[in-house]
Amino acid sequence: MLSLGSGGAKSTKPSFVSYVTPEEIKSEKDPPKQEKHPDLLPGEVEFCSANPILKYTQDDLSQRGVFGTLFCTNFRVTFISDEKPQEKTDKTFKNKLYGENDIPLMCVDHIYGVYDEKRKLITGGLVKNKYPSKMIIHCKDLRVFQFSLTFSKEEDAKKIFQGIAHHCLEEKSLKCVFAFSYMGTPSPEMQWKQETVMFDSPEDWTQEMKRTKANCRLVTENENFELSQRLPKYFVIPLTIGDLFSYQGKGLPIWCWSHYSGCALFKASFPPVTQEDGDFQKHLDTMINAVAHNHLYSVKTEDLSESLPNIQDIQQSYNKFKQFFLIENSTDFWLSDVKWFSSLESSGWLDIIRQCLQKAVEVVECLEKDNTNVLITEEEGTDLCCVISSLAQIMLDPYYRTLMGFQSLVQKEWVAGCHAFLDRCNHLHQKDKEYHSPVFLLFLECVWQLVHQHSPAFQFSETYLTVLSDSVHVPVFSTFLFNSSHHRESVMKAESPLAQSGPLSCPTVWDWSVQFDSKAQNFFFNPLYLEKVKHDRAVRKPHKPKHQRNLSLPSTAFKTPPKKGFFKDETDSLKKMLRVKRLSRWRGSPDAPTATTREFFESWQHRPLDYHGLLLPCLDGPAVHIWMQRYLRWIPEVYILGGGSVAVMTKLMELLSQVQDLKRVLEQRDSSQAAKLDHRPYFQHRLLSFDSSGRLSSSFPFAYTCYRSFKPIIPTGLMQSLMVTDSLASQEDEASSVVSFV
Amino acid sequence: DRSSGPRVSDTELRVYKDPSKDELPLLPEELVQDSAKDVTYICPFIGPVRGSLTVTNYRLFFRCTDREPVFGLDLPLGGLSRVEKIGAASSRGDVSYGVVCKDMRNLRFVHKEPENSLKKSVFEVLMKFAFPVSNNMSLFAFEYKQVFPENGWKVYDPLAEYKRQGLPNESWRISKVNDHYELCDSYPATLFVPVTITDEELRRVSSFRAKGRIPVLSWIHPESQAAVVRASQTMVGQNGRRCKEDEKLLQAIMDANAQSHKLFIFDARPSVNAAANKMKGGGFESEDAYQNAELVFLDIHNIHVMRESLRKLKDVVYPNIEESHWLSNLESTHWLEHIKLILAGALRIADKVESGKTSVVVHCSDGWDRTPQLTSLALIMLDSHYRTIRGFQILLEKEWLSFGHRFQQRVGHGDKNHTDADRSPIFLQFIDCVWQMTRQFPAAFEFNEYFLITILDHLYSCLFGTFLCNSEQQRLKEEVPKRTVSLWSFVNSQLEEFVNPLYVHYPSHVLFPTVGIRHLQLWVSYYIRWNPRMRPQEPVHQRYKELLAKRAELQKRVEELQREAANRMASSSSERAGSPTRSITPVQTFV
């Protein structure tokens, strides 16, 4: 596998195009194969195909691969091997919509063509010319596929290449997205429907206000989007706002969440105010005032577009970052391993994550410590506002750390909250790059940091987050397809009469049964989750609302004395105060506010950790990590066979299921007690049905391909890695022995 | 109880639950030497705190008096590498003292100089007791007389360990040639060599290997008989000297393994350095002289490079971490790259032995730094016995202590010469590599992180005799096993503290770790443990233990119910014979 002679001093040259000769592959006189076709989903249509296509094995330097047929449908690019499928088909964690050799069209990130040993990014112009000998597909879920087109008929090769390039790269209309052709049978009344709050009805909002004891007003005037198309159908605002209809709802503070003290978090779109625009400025002041009136006449505002990176920065940073994980071969891998940390840093991605979490902590500090209302603003109010408000709510409210709570939060802040998923994810391959940005992924990244640091506080696992981040690019769900509630409604209304068989059936992503069977869904639950100890009803204090009880942090220590009351009659001076606060934002100088947030963190940290109370992330350099599961799962060089966190998680899941089995046995035995059925999700199956010898790879449950021989992965090109040039390197080991030898 | 006894406190400042309960729990034979009130400790995390400082013959103890709750700072003097006055006394007579520790922290105190010039300052006393060797006193380990239920000096019996490996056998024999350390004073008395080589030939070989450290067996594969052999470099010199007996010995090592007709020689050094050694009489095996042998350089740097790397790392992590440049700062220390190279080297060795069924010879220059790093890591990968608590102790006793890793020189026990070029964190680096493996294989090791940290803390503490002296011969001469307590006595007397609850024993598992930088992490809970913001977390272990307890409890209840039901059944069986009973699947016990 490697030349040992010089201890890796000679590096293997990037053997990028050492193609297999056709003789090597026994493709000569195989009996005429049966035409294979992919199992199409309902509504899926095959466009074109080519055979034989060589798909390179990713985990191999030798550029070998398997032959098969490449298809392009209206849903995916799919490769079907000529070889008989291996027996390992009963995967525990199988996606029902697409498999290891399927790439949903929406999931294609970039396509590269290799022309005469040169690798070129495929854009519109190149497609019409000759087709490349090799096609490399980079996916948004970070898989990399390499296909050789040289073995099939020229015509076929050209057709499949152009077909794939056309369907994956060309701008298209929303109607062409597979979701509108998908005819999956709508699943029966599902659990998700009962428990994930969709925030598409007045009741959902009322319920949420009740849960958090909010004292705000539900707005139903936008039911037909007469007020604004950029605002949710239903939303909640401070009580004192009378004038709804001026400026198309711009500047309206949208309620996000109320702290048990009464103060609340609001978000708003605040377009930049020009000097002349005095009226609009006045309007905004009124709005800020209304927020202040919500609780104790105090408010802090934060313009996120000034204090956080903008969506283009986020996009650029992520583009750099993801490159480090789109590994095409071993040589690339070991070369990039050398400058790994500085490369990561130069992308700035981890720093953006840190900044968002930091900002969310600042918001939490205002709500929790100072009991001040907070209004976060941004030009549109649907990007970073969503990130920061969702993060703050997760830190403050344990409900959002349960699976259903988290899904409801995404519905509330992102889906109903009008995050422009369609534009941000660029599902339609629009050329205008200005609107693309992985804002939702950034949010999931931040959540992952919290999950990673405080695992027992979360009911869902990192696998759940990874799957959710993948699902954004599966063109079946309505969740991530639209730019706003208005957009959703108008498209759905326009489309549904066209569909012959009743209304449009677009499942939401929360209907996980569309993608995974119940066994696989077990992986969404975090076996480390510490459920809140349930008190007996008798013990429970009836007057305390659930929400408040959950926030069992020692708030008395944090609270500043309630001295804000004196504002009451001084509306004029209040106005002045507010203006001042707004203009001199929190972070006027970069050091001072960070220091107080540091203090806030440290005082929180000194208290015993309550996983059902306030949760803050540690943001020091060594504490912010890479989401290994998402980013490294397809890279065979980093698979740890028989190790990784999966080794722990499977053991925990196994133990947990044993405990639950025992509990059930007891429940069944205990005839004297009426069987109180436990509605919590439990692991219904013995999960250790997978290999109990500890031979799972660390990328489980994602890497399908890892049934390789058990061999270590030995780095190449080590010498380049460490050129210590100073004199120390040439010094003798034994200081004293220098004398004796010379 | 963790708070008393030989535990090195794991946080910078310990909170005392009961401040009225006075002062420090002294160990047996520990005596207060001096103490001073009104000392200010300049804590880099919470600012200056005032309190009293006590120096004993074992530790430095600072107890803050001006804060609630009461804090304490408690560290063994063995952990100090340097104590010095910083600058001159201020106008008020305050003097600053800096204390540099071997465990990644620096302390600063401010203290008023005593007015009576005859009285020594507490810091002068500190300097005396911190460096007993430089002051002609003995290390505290020789005073400490605590008795533990188990005698840790009995953990390693070379003959028993080799017997476990199936030795001696038809190919390998015990040689008594070094019984009195005449052949090589840094090697153990018990050596295993091929049966075809006579003691006389070994003597000839010893003059051809640096410091007389001849190739001897370290480990043998139970099935393939492929062997891991360790040595020092050959004394080839510029003229390309050869040694017939050495060539014969390596051929014999190859022949002892019928499965392979090849031998791999792993030279831990970068090839440039190995070549440079020829100028000084050393060198490496030429492939002309050693037929069928293939030489591989592993590119691991020397002790000076490693020392410098750790120094840079300390700058980066203590006391404060620069947030925005953390990653590039970490990279610039090269610490993890060195870890990667060592692990990669060990991985290649393990791969040759396991997958290639080939015997290997490992050496560096003297064979006591990089060589034990590589052999012991390869052994951990190959042999699950070394992943148990006792097995790991045996591994350290064998590969590190008996084969003469120069602990005294590398650590500088009780020696005030902190600039000594012989100091180097070689052993720390090895423990770090082990930690990396425990991260990658969380269920494969019987011990937990606390076990590794305890070993490192007592590497410096000089409380136990285990890591004293440079070789087996020296330890015998100093009667270390007779006069001191072994660290393993302490550890094995309270094993439950060090057990990894997730451990599963798979006897024949070979571990191949991933050595890419992407999977290596900085060991935060060791290197940055003094930073209060880096709260150590082991929620997994905690949760697992809870679940184990829960399962045991439920199992008990199920069994009770079963028994009850069985009784009831027995009493009513005449009436309702054959009524179906739920059979309860016995829960599989696997821990």
UniProtKB/TrEMBL annotation, chain A:
Main location: cytoplasm
GO cellular component, one term: membrane
Cell compartment(s), UniProt: Cytoplasm, Myofibril, Sarcomere; Sarcoplasmic reticulum
Residues annotated as domain Myotubularin phosphatase: 199-558
Region feature (Disordered): 1-39
Record GO biological process: phosphatidylinositol dephosphorylation
Gene3D superfamilies assigned: Pleckstrin-homology domain (PH domain)/Phosphotyrosine-binding domain (PTB)
Pfam families: 3-PAP (PF12578), Myotub-related (PF06602)
Protein family membership: Belongs to the protein-tyrosine phosphatase family. Non-receptor class myotubularin subfamily.
Name of protein: Myotubularin-related protein 12
Native organism: Cyprinus carpio
From TrEMBL, chain B:
The protein's name in its UniProt record: Phosphatidylinositol-3,5-bisphosphate 3-phosphatase MTMR2
GO biological process, one term: phosphatidylinositol dephosphorylation
Region (Disordered): 563-591
Organism expressing this protein natively: Cyprinus carpio
Listed Polar residues bias regions: 569-591
Tyrosine specific protein phosphatases domain: residues covered: 333-380
Cellular compartment(s): Cytoplasm; Early endosome membrane
Family statement drawn from the similarity comment of this UniProt entry: Belongs to the protein-tyrosine phosphatase family. Non-receptor class myotubularin subfamily.
EC number from the UniProt entry: 3.1.3.95
Membrane topology: Peripheral membrane protein
Coiled-coil blocks: none
GO molecular function, one term: phosphatidylinositol-3-phosphate phosphatase activity
Keywords for the protein's UniProt record, in alphabetical order: Coiled coil, Cytoplasm, Endosome, Hydrolase, Lipid metabolism, Membrane
Domain Myotubularin phosphatase residue range list: 152-527
Signal peptide bounds: none
